[in-house]
Amino acid sequence: MSGDLLMVEGLSKRFAGRGRSVRALDDVSFSIRKGETLGIVGPSGSGKSTLARVLLRLIEPDAGRILIDGEDWRSLSPKALRHRRGDIQMVFQDPLSAFNPRTTIGKAIMDPLRIHAVGKRHSRMAALAELLQRVGLSADMASRRIHEVSGGQRQRVALARALASRPRLVVLDEALSALDVSLRGQMLELLVRLQRDEGISFLFIGHDPAVVRMISHRVAVMDQGRIVETGDADAVFSDPRSDTGKALIAAIPTWR
Ligand SMILES: Nc1ncnc2c1ncn2[C@@H]1O[C@H](COP(=O)(O)OP(=O)(O)OP(=O)(O)O)[C@@H](O)[C@H]1O
């Protein structure tokens, strides 16, 4: 057993546009081990979010295989997918877009537990308290409404909701990008701790190479739908080989 949680082979996705089509993913292959974080960096439009959405099965690729623990993710029946959807969860940049802002925090976190029918009501209440605690929120936050709390707290709620179904992989798509520096640091610490304690794997998409380097074991650089470079995070960031990698690092003067 290789220890790979996720294996992606030859993923391709083309979007038809007006008069021309865009190759958003072009023969993308990579793997993520259990308990590992793979960072994805690349210029705007390079296909990062499309990759995330294909992994979540929010959109179908034209070609390619996705294996979770050796199991073919794309061939799961709708019923099997409903049972397994919790395995891969996603946290977006703007949690407001993912929530009904008038929902209470408790309900926002509990809904997936209810949908996945995890435990009885009283054990779900205990799970809610534990989830809030795991993401550093107090239990009395459960009755507050999403629109009443700060952006940093909202992002913790989004993470708690993602964790509710006990995922094996969490895809973080620019999940920390809207946070200020100190909140971002706290969230990074939280993610690292969760990974250490629970062995969750992360796919971390970010536009700030400094943040991606901090959390990632390995990094893949994307450009025009392709992975143009991949390697250990420190190696890629200290000595990028691809033109895209070089340009991304050069754009941050403090790296030099
Ligand atoms: N639903 C869609 N219909 C048509 N084209 C799309 C669609 N979604 C994405 N694209 C195109 O696919 C390409 C990849 O987009 P994607 O959003 O995956 O890039 P990205 O790397 O996440 O960009 P950003 O960093 O700006 O979020 C872009 O050219 C984009 O315009």
From TrEMBL:
Residues 6-249 form the ABC transporter domain. One of its GO terms (molecular function) is ATP binding. GO terms for biological process: transmembrane transport. SUPFAM superfamilies: P-loop containing nucleoside triphosphate hydrolases. Pfam families: ABC_tran (PF00005). SMART domains: AAA. Keywords: ATP-binding, Nucleotide-binding, Transport. Belongs to the ABC transporter superfamily. This is ABC transporter ATP-binding protein. It comes from Pseudohoeflea suaedae.
